[in-house]
Amino acid sequence: MTPEAVREWDARTYRRVSVPHEEWAEAVLERLPLRGDETVLDAGCGTGRVTRMLIERLPQGRVIGVDGSQAMVAEVRKILRGRDEAFTADLTQLELDAAVDAVISSAVFHWIKDHDALFARIRAALVPGGRFVAQCGGAGNIDELRETTRRLVAREPYAEHLQGSEEPWNYAAPEETEARLRAAGFEQVRCRLQPWDVLPPEPFEFLRTICLGPFLDPLPEELRRPFVEDVLAAEATPLRLRYVRLNIDARAA
After folding, report:
1. How far apart are the C-alpha atoms of 115 and 134, rounded to whole Å?
2. Residue 174 host element (H or E)
3. How far is CA 44 from CA 1, 27, 47, in A?
4. Which of 252, 35, 248, 249 lies closest to 129 in space, CA to CA?
5. N or C: which terminal CB in the chain sees fewer CB atoms within 10 Å?
6. Is 49 helix (H, G, I), strand (E, B) or coil?
7. What pTM did the predictor assign?
8. What is the separation of C-alpha 4 from the centre of its chain, rounded to a whole number of angstroms?
9. Contact at 8 Å (CB) between 103 and 41?
């Protein structure tokens, strides 16, 4: 099994501009009832938005945060209690010392190409009957922005550096996701799409930090800002991103 490629993030800017992610996180948490004494895995914890909310809901419980970015994990560790934990790992290779009662994830899985491996490791992390609640980008997510990006990638001066590059996202449909979850050992599976338009408060930094990072990394420094500016120039003003969220609810068999 080949590990997913992991890129580092600008964690501080991400925390500042990812306002929509907090709304998504709150919506996911509403679907996960907790007594307050469970152990819950935050799969792809980022800078800790979901982690912080889980800590508030688990006064006698424990939170385990996992992310592929060392910068993100460093931010999360600042908010943990003594019994909580955060570490860096590839979610398609995840190994825990003991199974958890629930797994939650927000705005992460569309960055992972191999959903079969991902769901197999999530199932292995759960006790029988454990809840799995998640949300990520789904089929149709940011289609207009993706088309703009495709056109720019094929243009000079960017094509020289981005030729042959693939989109970094995996925006899956509900039906294929349900089939993968059942194959991985889940039951009571339900997946659905939810449109969710976003007007970023800081359009340039939002695109640079959240959406376009994988395209900017291969570019020389002097072309990174122009690439983001060209994307913005091709989009309507104010920038409206038409997100489509894939909601996942399942229970470990």
Report:
1. 13
2. helix 174-184
3. 20, 16, 9
4. 252
5. N
6. helix
7. 0.91
8. 13
9. yes
To 10 degrees, the CA torsion angle through 21, 251, 190, 109? 40
Q: How far is residue 89 CA from its own chain's centroid?
A: 14
Summarised one tens digit per residue, pLDDT across range 161-212 is: 998 888 889 999 999 999 999 999 999 999 999 999 999 888 998 898 888 9
- The kind and range of the H/E element at 8 are none
The conformation of residue 172, written as its DSSP 8-state character, comes to: B
Rounded CA-CA distance 249/93 in Å is 22
Q: Pairing mode, if any, of strands 186-198 and 241-252? A: antiparallel
Helix or strand (DSSP H, E) at 179: helix 174-184
Residues facing residue 42 across a β-bridge: 65, 104
Starting at the earlier edge strand, list the strands of the sheet with 241-252. Answer: 85-88, 62-67, 39-43, 100-106, 126-137, 241-252, 186-198
Exposed (0-12), middle (13-18) or buried (19+): which is 113, by Cβ within 10 Å?
Answer: middle
> For residue 191, what are the β-bridge partners?
248
192, β-bridge pairs = 247
Pairing state of beta strands 62-67 and 85-88? parallel
Cis peptide before 218 (omega within 30 of 0): no
Per-residue model confidence as pLDDT tens digits over 164-176: 888 889 999 999 9
11-141+169-200+243-252 folds as: Rossmann fold (3.40.50)
Only one residue has tokens 């945060």, namely: 65
Spell out the domain ranges in the chain.
11-141+169-200+243-252
